[in-house]
Amino acid sequence: PVSPAPFGVASGGGFIYTAVQLTQASQELLLSEFGCLIPTGWTHKADHMTICLGTLNQPKVSEHTYTEEVAKSVLSDCQLNQHKKLMVIEVGESATCMAVRVNGCPSLNLIPHITLAVAPHGRSVDSNYIENWMSWRLSVVEVEGVVEEFGT
């Protein structure tokens, strides 16, 4: 995994990332539905789905992602304070984190997801590198939230 340090730091203040911030009820639903799968001792997250690093108007891109022009096109369906409904379609786990893959909102992440939990030695960003995903068909899990920009 690539270190997120250059992306996670906004020198002199500013916006670090844009995400769908889940409602409290949606956060509780995710942990209720998937909590039994989370290993003991892991820190629960389940609070947002990252849309992009930076703002919707100025998403941060790198040579490993989209060009700025393509990124803005991908994100053109998103607006600040917009309500979004997200449907869980898969659950994934690695040695350091667990997440659910979702549909319903564009993301510059290769796999749009919500990090459910991280291991004591893990970080939330590790969910970008989960390789083992399994289809979720045991129940319909739909969560909702609002598009927000988060800064320092």
Shape estimate: globular
What distance separates the N and C termini?
Answer: 24 Å
Low-confidence stretches: 1-12
Largest sheet: 8 strands, antiparallel
- H/E order of the elements? HEHEEHEEEEE
Counting helices, strands and paired strands, the structural category is: alpha+beta
- How many H/I helical runs? 3
Helix amount? 10-25%
Record field, number of beta strands? 8
Q: Please report which band the strand proportion falls in: under 5%, 5-15%, 15-25%, 25-35%, 35-45% or over 45%.
A: 25-35%
Mean pLDDT score: 88
Q: Mind telling me the C-alpha Rg? A: 15 Å
Task: Outline the structure in words.
The chain is of the alpha+beta class and 152 residues long. The chain has helices at residues 5-8, 24-34, 68-74; strands spanning 15-22, 43-44, 48-53, 83-93, 97-103, 113-118, 133-135, 142-151. The longest helix has 11 residues, at 24-34. The protein starts with a helix and ends with a strand. Mean pLDDT is 88; it is low at 1-12.
Keywords:
single chain, 152 residues, alpha+beta, 8-stranded antiparallel β-sheet, 14% helix
